[in-house]
Amino acid sequence: MFCRYFSFFSLCLLLPTQRSSLGHGSSLHGKDTTSLPGFENLTTGYNKYLRPYFGGDPVQIAMSLDIASISSISESDMDYTATISLQQRWTDPRLLFHGNRSFTLDARLVELLWVPDTYIVESKRSFLHDVTVGNRLVRLFSNGTVLYALRITTTVACNMDLTKYPMDTQTCQLQLESWGYDENDVTFTWLRGNDSVQGMEKLRLSQYTVERYHTLVSRSQQETGDYPRLILQFELRRNVLYFILETYVPSTLLVMLSWVSFWITLDSVPARTCIGVTTVLSMTTLMIGSRSSLSKTNCFIKAIDVYLGICFSFIFGALVEYAVAHYSSSQKCAAKVPEEGPANELTEEMEEVNITNILNNSITSYKQKISFTSIEISSDNVNCSDLTVKSHEKIKCVLRNKMHRIIGYFTIQNPGNVDHYSKLLFPLFFMLVNVFYWAYYLYF
To answer: Any transmembrane segments, and where (predicted)?
Structure first.
């Protein structure tokens, strides 16, 4: 019983102390609120639906970027995916408070503030990171400056010119623009020029190297007005070493393999045919494999397609060279084989008939010449049609001789020289084409 009374008495003594401490805490809270009038404005007299300087000068918004990564650069879809941290700074005179300190607010308070309606131009897909909470930052300075930062992953379109693929350099852009506020309401500027973009020098990409980047300030002319726009433009140079090892070296070795047939005799038909057909099929497979990764960009005639086409032409030419050499050799061998039997006798009879005809024609023409001297020549005895026929025959004879000369010029007299010349001409011409190819695509 005594213990109950004692505990009740102790509780009565402590109640006034607790009340006084609660009151003291309230006074402290009131003191903090008084020293920070910006927080008080969030609930009294602050309209988040009206921009700062509403009805007056435009709001100047300074931006900066931190590039965390650039990945998934797709030639098929012509876009790239980047993870960035976007910082926006502006001054709101309604959020002034005394002191030289800055306070970081809870990110959920951004719903109570006016923020710019910045969006990413040509963005296909974008999202804000929300692990473990929404990746947003709101920092308030005593002079009314607001720092608003967001962590965004976005997929942006990038128009690519693949005519020099894989020795190409692509220029992509990241554009920031106001959606609803035109230049009369807001103006965009970079915080520190090119230094406003951080992280580009540290990027390590799988297929590309960042050559250079620079920032631009522009404006977008729309039907509803002129809107401010900030542009980050950067150049990506593709690393060609992978394609040299994967495509260029194998295709060059296949061309050199096709030249092995030039050192094999023309009589080895299976060996030379096997080398030619195998290299042609291997080159075809290599061409299909190189285009499968860029199946949606077949409308472009790329540099790698040109090189593979050159290699395929040389390989196919080596196969055709053997066909021509073998055919000429077989024709020459057939011409050297002496004919036997009745055919030989028939030939001798034809030769005798031809000699007899020649002798008879010679005697007849001689008699005509003798009789021609005893005949008076007059204009009535001349037959113009005979002269015309003789002139036509002369023209036909001249044309026939020229055609025989042209055909004889292209006729292979010694088929063995075809391989001999091919051993020199094919490598020499291939090296010359390579010099022009690499000089054009690397320096022009």
So the answer is: 240-262, 274-294, 306-324, 424-443
